[in-house]
Amino acid sequence: MTVWDGLTGQADAIAIFRAAAERPGEEDAEARAGSAMTHAWLITGPPGSGRSNLAFAFATALLSPGTEAGDESARRLVDARTHPDLTVLSTEGVIIKMDAVKEAVKRSQYSPSVGRYRVVVVEDADRMVERTSNVLLKALEEPPERTVWILCAPSEADLLPTIRSRVRSVRLRVPSIDDVAELLVARDGVDRATAERAAREAQSHIGMARRLATNPEARERREETLRAALGIRGVSTAVNAAARLLAIAGDDAKAITLERDAAEREGVLRSLGVEPGQSVPPGLRSQIKALEDDQKRRATRSLRDGIDRILVDLTSLYRDVIMVQLGRETSVINRELLTEVRAAGTACAPAATLSTLDAIAQARQRIESNVAPALALEAMLVSAIRR
């Protein structure tokens, strides 16, 4: 088993990174110039295409002692994000903070301690504001000899042109439904029918497909979302549906963060020597407050991500409606709701369905621009009224 075996649907990109990782570490600059290896990479692709998975597989290959399969010890350390030569820059908030980027840049200057390289992985590099990106730019302009940066973002356009000019970009494609289903069967032990349905409903988003395949409650929330949209008959039901969708997004976000928040708090209290049920001493309350602030930021992002997932699911629903209207039922995504989708298709013209799809896209843009989600959802669902 190699470090690349857990990836799916990205044979071309894997070939590029495998060739780069297998290059010996030339000390000579002239030799490096002709090498497939470079000091900075940008992995782009749609959400769920496996950007982070590929980035960490490449990091494992670089941090392993030159073996094809990858060193088992290096794999475990990278999976745990504890390898001494690995720095991970990510955020569970809305943006990556300036201080976090500065710390990563500082660590990038260190020489490797046990591996061939020091590797810095930047997940969601598009979540940096311009002044934060400029801090990263300086590190990319004058990189240390043995440091490799691996940036991940949805597209090159999400980064500053000056950063794009200093990285080698590798574009990922959307994996096929069959590829994602096979991965779920092999990696997670999901039965074939459930894996195929999850991959189809997630539209090949690997992370979301895994969640749908392994979490019955997530499947139920998704189906309730679609049925709420299909049940809209007037302005009042549109407003009620918007409130329900917002509640579903909140429940989904809580399901993701609640258990983790409790475990983090318990771990911090244990590390501070506070016994379960014991009150936190005044001198330690600032550390607990910092943890709670981080968790609130993570909850905010998780809620926004949950709302966006709902809008993506609604996009798939109304895409299905217009496919039925155009006589293309074989390409329907939400096959389990085909009867309801047909009924929705007969209630309006294709032009009205296209207007609803435009309204969903506009709602995503509005929420991204910090419009109140409830208002954005209400405005969007009013366009979805079927009589």
TrEMBL record:
<dbReference type="GO" id="GO:0006261">
    <property type="term" value="P:DNA-templated DNA replication"/>
</dbReference>
<keyword id="KW-0808">Transferase</keyword>
<dbReference type="InterPro" id="IPR027417">
    <property type="entry name" value="P-loop_NTPase"/>
</dbReference>
<dbReference type="Pfam" id="PF13177">
    <property type="entry name" value="DNA_pol3_delta2"/>
</dbReference>
<dbReference type="InterPro" id="IPR050238">
    <property type="entry name" value="DNA_Rep/Repair_Clamp_Loader"/>
</dbReference>
<dbReference type="GO" id="GO:0003887">
    <property type="term" value="F:DNA-directed DNA polymerase activity"/>
</dbReference>
<protein>
    <submittedName>
        <fullName>DNA polymerase III subunit delta</fullName>
        <ecNumber>2.7.7.7</ecNumber>
    </submittedName>
</protein>
<keyword id="KW-0548">Nucleotidyltransferase</keyword>
